[in-house]
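Q: I'm writing up a methods section and want to include an example of the input and output format. Could you take the sequence below and give the corresponding predicted structure tokens, formatted cleanly so I can copy it straight into the document?
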Amino acid sequence: MLSRIIPDPFLVALVCVVTLAALLPASGQAAEAVDFLANFAISLLFFLQGARLARETVIGGITHWRLHLLVLACTFILFPLIGLALHAAAPSLLSENLWVGMLFLCALPSTVQSSIAFTSIGKGNVPAAICSATASNLFGIFLTPVLVGLLLSAKGDTGVDLSAIGKIVMQLLLPFIAGQVLRPKVGAFVLKHKKILSITDRGSILLVVYSAFSAAVVNGIWQRIAVNDLVTLLLLDSLLLALVLVFTTVVARTLGFNKPDEVTIVFCGSKKTLASGVPMANVLFPGAAAGIVILPLMIFHQIQLMVCAWLAQRYGKEIGNTETITRP
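A: Here is the clean output for your methods example:
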């Protein structure tokens, strides 16, 4: 009952950080310090994720190639196609920067922690979820900048500088590889202290969001966003998530996946990462513009958490009831 009344603590923290950036934005040397801390925290996050993920789990999950291909197709093909279709259908609904944010959202990889957590709650195939979500993030380091360039070119923009891939690799992929290499030495400590990863995850996102929103406030960008734009974003993000949830569910059943695999496909194929998306936006777009570009992602992130939390509980009860009936 309390969980239905009390809002998610991270959502509250995110709102507080945005409010702080609006009232006390970082500028000058303070902005440089915050940016440095945010980049360090993001790199530490991916190092810890690399140190936590067992290679046996990766190898075991890779063999489920049909599931992984479907998840990757939803993440990097279905989402961008829907984004382009929405823009083509109603280009005047949002400003150019917000449409860039919507297309950027569609090009991002899946989440890792929430995809795995919701798959676990829904009694899905957790090892496959770990492998699929991790693969999505690793592929996304290279695919997202390319997709963003293609999507922006398709809508008439000049796109982004693809040399940004190198910066993203340095900040996200190399720390992850280092974590994998050092896993024999630090893996046990990381697994024992799971709260470290949770704090680093949320703390890094809050730092980067504060940095991006501060730059937006300092440059006066937020004065150009109307209330109706926020309402439109909420509706478009909800529509986007609904379309992908329906698609992943129908396709998983049509292709004959069992219920645990369906749960994994639905949760891994419908999510977009805030942890990787925010630092990518800071690299791919100018500092001030990043504050607006990540706005559709922030709204989508909260919608997907609330909807998928309810859906995971429903899946869990459904599969649990089935197991009870079929148990001898």
